Amino acid sequence: MKSICVFCSSSDLIDEVYFKTAIDLGCQIGGLNLDLVYGGGGIGLMGAVARSVHKNGGKVVGVFPEFLREKDKGFEYTEADELIIAETMRIRKAIMDERADAFIVLPGGIGTLEEAIEIMSMKQLGLTEKPLAFVNTNNFYDGLVSNFQMMVGLKFAKSSILDLFAVCPNPSSALEFILSYKSKKKDNKWL
Questions:
Q1: What is the DSSP letter of 92?
Q2: Is the dihedral of CA 156, 157, 158, 163 positive or negative?
């Protein structure tokens, strides 16, 4: 394990408890001498994680979309050890996937959810075996997990989708899951 991709919010308007979780995660990633791979933002939880990784000796690899760089000056984390400018959002996600050995999802909005769900889909299809953990700060992901359980109950998905990820109460348990992860042999038929 050399690098962890973190998906999370870019909002500065959210409650302080989420920032504390992001800072804690960044401190631990840096303290473990792991690289952070993430969306390249310098604000919101994205910026909090990146700054914390740096303060604790870790390397920060940002993957920032070109259109945002042109549109919103000052959004990117210019202190990143490596800042990759991606032509499109799809290319951005592909780069993050290639550069990461595991994924941790902090609370976030539609973009965060979309990134995490794509990794779940890739795991289901057998395109990746990398671990995925959601940090459930303030029970943020309870509704999502409930929705996945409903999909299973209504036969829209197999119960094995619930094995594609872990839901962890804090960064320490998410990192413990990631670092001790053993890929499970899975049914390669998704329906």
A1: H
A2: negative
Confidence of residue 189 (pLDDT cuts 50, 70, 90): low
Give residue 67's pLDDT: 87
- Residue 109 in tokens: 């909005």
> Pick from 165, 68, 72, 79: which is nearest to 111 by CA?
68
Phi, psi (degrees; rounded to nearest 5) at 156: -80, -20
Q: What is the pTM of this model?
A: 0.95
Q: Which is nearest to 144 in space by CA: 172, 174, 109, 175?
A: 109
**Cα three-residue angle 155-8-122, rounded to 5 degrees:** 40
Tokens of 43: 């604000």
What per-residue confidence (pLDDT) applies to 186?
Answer: 59
The 10s digit of each residue's pLDDT in 77-132 is 999 999 999 999 999 999 999 999 999 999 999 999 999 999 999 999 999 999 99
Q: For the chain, what are the domain ranges?
A: 3-179
CATH of domain 3-179: 3.40.50.450
**Rg, the chain, Cα only:** 16
